[in-house]
């Protein structure tokens, strides 16, 4: 008997999704390339490891895998983004038939997804570029899914995706049709950008508390006490991490302070720059990781310029309020980027629905995210929604205070500082951009607009001639 759904790529995420599908009663086929020079058959070994995979069919032959699936075939790819995905699609394409659906669930760049969709459509194959968030545990127990592509393709695979997805507070699946082309992967990319800034804010909080003489355990106690009012998955895991000991030491103290990345934060920063959206916190959290990578330089610099001083004068309440304010700004910037991309690409993204599918399963789920579907549905500017206004008015002084104190004692807080600087700029009716306009006109005759004629007309001044007059 043929199976209902196929999965290619039995890495950490692929394996967990197979078990999730099997757990929901789907008969599945699983394929992993037979590793050359190795004895074991990855798919067979995996099947034998878990009782829920009793009915699942394992393959290391792609043709046999394809033949085992009911038509139209539904095949999900969970292979590394980039070249490996293209190579696999090349191999798979000749084996498929018209109306088969391929779902690609890696962290792919949205422009690759668009190209792949076009390529497959020439052959009558339907393509869904699907963002998958939640890591290994999410994939196993319910990820947040962001499928994009042809709506007709999504309809065919919808029952499978909705069944395996996490469920929100109303038991609705954390999976919704995102939009055409690469929109699913674009949305996942921005999810990761927001994730970068959320992670960096917590890292900065940890640093501030360490500089005020707290042990990881004491910091964990403080962060743990925040959960009642400002919970998030990332806060929870941070508390766990800070409490973890190895032998007689905090494990965190033994972890090298150099952070890597796989590219999505970089892509989000580029997309924000291309679309003209000041997603400054995402960009800054990416660059904070880059600064961390220069460990050798940092060591020499510290030896030359001296260490950051203790920052004992920052109290817990200030840090908490600053953290809450900064999170609001981060979410605003991320959703503003999504809104702009939607308008430019004509994707018609439903931002409220996006926030809803991020309330569970994904890495950026949080109590704040749970409030966003209603706020975004109201159509209000997120930073002008009455609830946000009340909160930001209350917390902004702490954000300013925290950043000033950290700057004075040389504790780097790049993302907190982007939050307050963005806020100050974005809430200033007058900025010094008039001087930028004048400078551009002075050296390059780029022209400028005036505020005394409604900004309608273009002007140019011969600055050298009028100098001083
Ligand atoms: C998720 C995560 C996941 C992964 C990213 C992070 O939503 O489940 O975002 O996709 O952690 O690869 O990438 P970096 O390696 O760039 O931090």
Automatic annotation (TrEMBL):
Protein's GO biological process: D-gluconate metabolic process; pentose-phosphate shunt
Coiled-coil stretches noted in the UniProt entry, renumbered to this chain: none
Start and end residues of each 6-phosphogluconate dehydrogenase C-terminal domain: 184-464
Reaction(s) catalysed (UniProt annotation): D-gluconate + ATP = 6-phospho-D-gluconate + ADP + H(+); 6-phospho-D-gluconate + NADP(+) = D-ribulose 5-phosphate + CO2 + NADPH
E.C. no: 1.1.1.44
UniProt keyword Transferase, yes or no: yes
Assigned keywords, A-Z: ATP-binding, Gluconate utilization, Kinase, NADP, Nucleotide-binding, Oxidoreductase, Pentose shunt, Transferase
Highest taxon, organism lineage: Bacteria
Pathways involved: Carbohydrate acid metabolism; Carbohydrate degradation; pentose phosphate pathway; D-ribulose 5-phosphate from D-glucose 6-phosphate (oxidative stage): step 3/3
Keyword Acyltransferase applies: no
Any GO molecular function: NADP binding
Record family assignment: Belongs to the gluconokinase GntK/GntV family.
Subunit structure, interactors included: Homodimer.
Function: Catalyzes the oxidative decarboxylation of 6-phosphogluconate to ribulose 5-phosphate and CO(2), with concomitant reduction of NADP to NADPH.
Name by which UniProt lists this protein: 6-phosphogluconate dehydrogenase, decarboxylating
Taxonomy of the source species: Bacteria, Pseudomonadati, Bacteroidota, Flavobacteriia, Flavobacteriales
Range of the intact protein held here: 156 to 624 of 624
């Amino acid at each position: 008997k043929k199976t209902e759904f196929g999965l290619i790529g039995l890495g950490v995420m692929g394996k967990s999704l197979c078990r999730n599908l099997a757990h929901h009663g789907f008969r599945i086929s699983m394929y992993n390339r037979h590793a050359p020079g190795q004895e074991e058959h990855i798919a067979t070994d995996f099947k034998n490891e878990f009782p829920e995979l009793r009915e699942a069919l394992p393959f290391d032959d792609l043709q046999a895998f394809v033949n085992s699936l009911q038509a139209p075939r539904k095949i999900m790819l969970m292979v590394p983004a980039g070249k490996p995905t293209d190579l696999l699609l090349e191999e798979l394409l000749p084996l498929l038939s018209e109306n088969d659906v391929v779902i690609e669930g890696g962290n792919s760049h949205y422009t690759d997804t668009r190209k792949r969709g076009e390529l497959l459509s020439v052959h009558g194959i339907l393509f869904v570029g699907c963002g998958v968030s939640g890591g290994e545990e999410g994939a196993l127990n319910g990820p947040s899914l962001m499928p994009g592509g042809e709506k007709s393709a999504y309809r065919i695979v919808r029952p499978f995706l909705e069944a395996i997805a996490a469920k929100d507070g109303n038991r609705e699946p954390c999976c919704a049709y995102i939009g055409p082309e690469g929109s699913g992967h674009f949305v996942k990319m921005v999810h990761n950008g927001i994730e970068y800034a959320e992670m960096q804010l917590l890292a900065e909080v940890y640093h501030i508390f360490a500089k005020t003489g707290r042990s990881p355990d004491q910091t964990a106690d403080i962060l743990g006490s925040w959960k009642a009012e400002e919970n998030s998955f990332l806060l929870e895991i941070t508390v766990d991490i800070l409490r973890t000991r190895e032998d007689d030491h905090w494990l965190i103290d033994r972890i090298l302070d150099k952070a890597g990345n796989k590219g999505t934060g970089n892509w989000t920063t580029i997309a924000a720059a291309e679309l003209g959206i000041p997603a400054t916190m995402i960009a800054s959290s990416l660059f904070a990781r880059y600064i961390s990578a220069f460990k050798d330089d940092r060591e020499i610099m510290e030896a030359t310029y001296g260490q950051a001083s203790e920052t004992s004068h920052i109290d817990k309440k200030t840090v908490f309020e600053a953290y809450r304010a900064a999170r609001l700004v981060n979410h605003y910037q991320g959703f503003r980027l999504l809104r702009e991309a939607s308008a430019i690409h004509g994707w018609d993204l439903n931002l409220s629905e996006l926030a809803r599918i991020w309330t569970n399963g994904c890495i950026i789920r949080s109590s704040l995210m749970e409030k966003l579907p209603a706020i975004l549905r109201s159509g209000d500017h997120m930073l002008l929604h009455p609830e946000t206004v009340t909160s930001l008015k209350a917390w902004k002084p702490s954000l300013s205070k925290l950043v000033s104190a950290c700057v004075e004692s040389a504790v780097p807080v790049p993302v907190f500082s982007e939050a307050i600087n963005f806020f100050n700029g974005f809430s200033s009716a007058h900025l010094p951009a008039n001087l930028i306009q004048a400078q551009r006109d002075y050296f390059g005759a780029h022209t400028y607009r005036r505020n005394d004629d409604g900004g309608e007309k273009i002007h140019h001044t011969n600055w050298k001639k009028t100098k001083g007059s």
